[in-house]
Design brief:
Number of helices: 8
Largest sheet: 7 strands, parallel
Number of domains: 1
Helix content: 40-55%
Order of helices and strands: EHEHEHEHHEHEHHE
Strand order of the largest sheet: 3-2-1-4-5-6-7
Structural class: alpha/beta
Number of strands: 7
Strand content: 15-25%
CATH architecture: 3-Layer(aba) Sandwich
CATH topology: Rossmann fold
Radius of gyration: 17 Å
């Protein structure tokens, strides 16, 4: 099936590794051009070297409003924005001080909101565009040992619902994906945090990944395939919703 992605201009934040990098590769595979954004310039360059097709990079700290505005100024004509940058720590309410809480939300929560505001304004003007927020299942299933992330994800879920309900009036689609545990460096870090909370021993992190659907975490490429499919004009009636990619775990 031709997903009609060829020639589309795509911006992927948090694009130097994990889900973001897989999303970039999937869009490139469909003939899109991609701009990768992340903090680490060296890691970005390495990631870009391993990708096929036309790839640009921008090393920015998207927890800072000025850097978000710089991205929109230089690549605000994108057809697709994929909000993916975020690193909210694990832990219970007493494990994360307020400075760390605000720092984490500055990148993922406020970063998504501000970039959506900036890009949606441009897309509204031209009557076309797609914004995809990669959020996370903790927004559906908040837990004490990931309270900062669960609360942030729930906020982004509501934000995506509200904005995506309005945006079709301007020819723009805004929607999201909730990935469950996905095989990335981040899931190892979060699992270690949860093991420390549960057992007092982060070395038991693999025990936090037992009992998963299909006996494994999701693969980044599976999340990426969903992202590209949903961003396709073939799925033009989708907006305002957030798709759960959890293997049915929430119903187990």
């Amino acid at each position: 099936m031709d997903l009609q992605i060829a020639g589309k201009r795509v911006v992927v934040t948090g694009g130097s590794k994990g889900i973001g990098l897989a999303v970039a590769e999937a869009f490139l595979g469909e003939g899109a051009t991609v701009t990768l954004v992340a903090r680490d310039a060296g890691r970005l360059d390495e990631a870009a070297k391993g990708l096929p097709g036309h790839v640009a990079t921008m090393a920015l700290d998207l927890s800072k409003p000025a850097d978000r505005e710089k991205l929109a100024a230089e690549h605000g004509d994108a057809d697709v924005l994929v909000n993916n940058a975020g690193a909210i720590p694990g832990g219970g309410l007493f494990d994360i001080d307020m400075a760390r809480w605000e720092q984490a939300w500055a990148l993922k929560v406020m970063g998504y909101i501000h970039l959506t505001q900036l890009y949606l304004a441009r897309m509204k003007e031209r009557g076309d565009g797609t914004i995809l927020n990669v959020i996370g299942m903790a927004g559906r299933q908040p837990r004490w040992d990931y309270v900062c992330g669960g609360a942030g994800n729930a906020a982004l879920n509501a934000f995506t619902n509200a904005v995506g309900g309005k945006s079709p009036e301007w020819g723009v689609r805004v929607f999201g994906i909730h990935p469950a545990a996905t095989r990335t460096d981040r899931i190892v870090a979060l699992s270690k945090s949860r093991a420390k909370t549960a057992f007092g021993d982060e070395s038991r992190w693999e025990e936090m990944l037992t009992g998963l659907p299909f006996g494994r975490p999701a693969e980044p490429e599976e999340i990426a395939a969903m992202a590209v499919m949903l961003a396709s004009p073939k799925v033009a009636y989708l907006s305002g919703t957030v798709i759960d990619v959890d293997g049915g775990a929430q119903f187990r």
